[in-house]
Amino acid sequence: MNISFHSIFVGLLITMSSTLCCCSGPLGGNGPVISFQVGVVLDLDTQLGHRALHCLRIAHSNFYSRHTNYTTRLVLHVRDSKGNVIDAAASSLELLNDVKVDAVIGPQKSTQANFLMNLGERAQVPIVSFSATSPSLQPRTKFFVQTAQTDDTQVGAIAAIIKTFQWNQVVIIYEDSEYGNGIVPHLSNALQDINARFAYKSLIPVSAHEDFILKELYKLMTMQTRVFIVHVSHSLGPKLFLKAKSIGMMSEGYIWIITSGLMDLLPSMNLHVVEAMQGVLGIKPLIPKTSNVESFRLQKTIFDLANPGYKPADIMSIFDVWAYDTLWALAMAAEQVGTHYPEASNQDTNSSDLFNLPISKTGPKLLKAILKTRFEGLGGMFHLVDGELYPTSYKILNVVGNGEKEVAVWTQSQGFKKVGPNTSDDLYSKEDFSSIVWPGRSRVVPRGWEVPVRGKKLRVVVAVRPGFEEYLNVIKDSRTGAVHFSGYYIDVFKSVMAALPYAVPYDFFHFEKPDGSCAGSYNDLIYQVFLQNYDAAIGDITITGNRSNYVDFTLPFAEGGVVRIVPITYEDDNGMWTFLKPMKKDLWLTSIAFFFVTGLAVWILEHRTSSAFRGPPSHHLGMIFYFPFSTLVFAHRERIVSNLARLVVVVWMFVVLILNSTYTASLSSRLTVQRLRPAIADVKELIRKGHSVGCYQGSFVYDILRGMGFEDSKIKMYRLPEDYKEAMSYGSKSGNISAFFDVVPYSKLFLSKYCDKYTIVGPTFRTDGFAFVFPKGSPLVADVSRAIIKLTENAEILDMSISDLTCNGPDSIVTSVSVSLQSFKGLFAITGAITSSCVLIFIVSYVYKNRCSLQQILNSTNTFWSKIKEIGRHFDQRDLSSHPSIISRDPHSRYPKPQVAEIVSSSESVDLSNSSLRVLSLPMNILSTHSSNIAVPDIPKDSTFSNSTVLAPILQEESNTAIDATDR
């Protein structure tokens, strides 16, 4: 009865196959048929192998029914590998040695492919596998072809799911085989690209029994992570999910994602396995919906009904499609090779060595033709790249009811696409996946982790610094032993945890030894969190680079920075050198230098024209120093003749006015206002003088002080504020400290109590602020950081801060500051530029007017120093050409109006070369009588004039007439 039933369906299958195929020519053809021997190595006792073999036969029948004019034909030689590498190798050796096949389809598993690809390389026969999907088949030989998408092509789709739902930790469960291990490094890299990571890797042997699987699942339950990626074969998958269902791991809050290998076999699984997998997400390559696919689906349905030993599949397997396309590709390549190389055959060997395989002449040509073959197959475009099937899109499936529901489509270039009529809209957020049914039949997207695990509370260790109860205070009940925690940090932590979108129970623990003493430094506390003895740590814990290597920090909730606290004293302004303090040394020196430069410039500009700047050398030097200083009180009496000199003096008097005003104001302030100043205001001074400094015991500030240059022996540590307050009051000379370094919050609180005796000086050494501490990879870090940001933006953390920081000390603590050169750089630059320009203009004018005389001196045969002396003598001569109006003419009078003459010193010389002066001889009695109206020049020794001769201007109309003084 059964035989008849089977025969009926086989006959129906053949009939349907012939009817569904489109023939392109008469059956058989006229020419001789060239046969290509093709071996098929599959695990025929498995669901996949049995179905794949039938797909190959359907593909064989359909191909040659459609291409009846082809002159080549594939002859299939089927061998059973029985699920192990040895039988697969033995079957392949028999096919290569005895049958002398031109190609081998298979093997079915990746573990078998590693050996078979080497046999194909030695015999130069293509090994074509549609089911060995491991990307780690290395070293890959050129004769091994994967007509399937390798497992690494689906990691992008898995990572996209993880990113969409913002899960930052996952657990991968994979089998210990070539198939299982191959995907792990690729998936790890894909997760790193989206800032996610493996929280744990669960490796399960292929032959693992149920007790081992159960033990491993219990271990996973104790972890926080609830996202599990499963990459196992069909033999382990059903057992894994049945055990997970039995212990409650398929309930609400869990996320299970399975890879394409297991998802593809879901239709062939038993119903009780499918029931256990409710809510699972799966990845599967997309099969385009075409007429050929529907025809093949009908043929497969007939096959499933004709084989009662296997569960019928409502959904077509991707491996069925790849097997079908593989035979078509091989048949096309054989036709191309047979047409061009009909004489191709194998080269026999006479060796008795089992592995001395015959070298195929057809194999290399057939391989080349396969790699170039392109056609539209059942699975889409059949196109090989580097011996692998070019990846296509993936479907995101959800196990619901007795089958699978398509949720979305993912492509490498465009990401997610919606399923339905409008498939062009990208999925951007998890709200677009609202149709997914999660484990426990929940519609709420799981957050991917659970805290606490199995009813445990979060163990939060508290770092308590004594002496600052406003920030953290611990009170222990001596009767009950209960510990009560309070303070600013506790309030902030409670507010942050309350702001989370879910409830997280927690308990506080004091970081202390059984005897009640502190259990260690802050780094010791950090290390305990690293060892996961605690789930979190709170307190005045500063973020540092070294600590971040062991734990994860949230965003800071309090300001950071380290400042220096020093004692303050009153300034003593009764010293003998107090008058020098209003200006700094650099300003004093610069001012003195400009006094000298200005005096020298005025002398140069006035020496040749004004008698006030003439005389003996000592008179010149005194005038250079005296004149600019006399301008301080505007006491100068010298007549300035030159316009250039007047400009210099005007600008200089402006500078003197500002300097004088600034000095007067600063000195008055020092003598009338009592000021406070730090004892030592510079860190370099502390180091240079060997002063000792302090910091809190166990704080990271100790490392900062060492980095500044302080010796270990000069750094002292204290626990109580009273201790370092007393140490600073005595100072470093008595074996204590001169300054104390601490973080900003505690420094402010300390000064609110002692601001009349201590102050903060110098810059703030930048550090990150206080933050909460969690173990590496804790899923709470991101959510707690978001809650801190939210509370900070709403000013709720600011409202909880300590506001009573008042002090009854001085209203202000002002550090005396002397005026520096920086404040007057612009002023000195202006006066320097104007003075230099005026001197330069004068020198250029002098050289131009006296170019003949100077040229004559330079052309002389005297020595260099002699020429310099001559030029100096020439410059020393008085020049009255620029001021000819000593006697000026009245424009309304016929005769010139007498002018007061200027008395010339008997030691002076007068340059008459450029002057229209007439020498007049006057008796000495006239000189003595009219000494106020005439000037007596210094007549050179070689002059013929007596010492009673004077000079007077010569009018233009009287240039040829001599005027004698006695005629008046």
Q: Spans of 5+ residues with little confidence (pLDDT < 50)?
A: 1-29, 884-968
Radius of gyration in whole Å, from Cα?
52 Å
Which outline best applies?
Answer: elongated
Major beta sheet summary: 8 strands, mixed
N/C terminus separation: 173 Å
Widest sheet, order of strands: 7-6-8-9-10-17-18-19
Number of DSSP-assigned strands: 34
Mean pLDDT equals: 78
The class by helix and strand makeup works out as: alpha/beta
Give the percentage of residues in beta strands: 15-25%
User: Helicity, in percent?
Assistant: 25-40%
Number of helices: 29
Protein name: Glutamate receptor
Pfam families: ANF_receptor (PF01094), Lig_chan (PF00060), Lig_chan-Glu_bd (PF10613)
Disulfide bonds: 755-807
Signal peptide: 1-21
How would you characterize this protein structure?
By secondary structure, the chain is α/β, with parallel strands linked by helices. Helices cover 38% and strands 17% of the residues. It has 29 helices and 34 strands. The strands form 10 sheets. The chain has an 8-stranded mixed beta sheet, sandwiched between helices. Strands 26, 27, 28, 29, 30 and 31 form a 6-stranded mixed beta sheet that branches. Strands 2-1-3-4-5 form a 5-stranded parallel beta sheet, sandwiched between helices. α2 (47-66) links the parallel β1 (34-42) and β2 (72-80). It is elongated, with a radius of gyration of 52 Å. 35% of the residues are buried. The model is unreliable at 1-29 and 884-968 (pLDDT under 50).
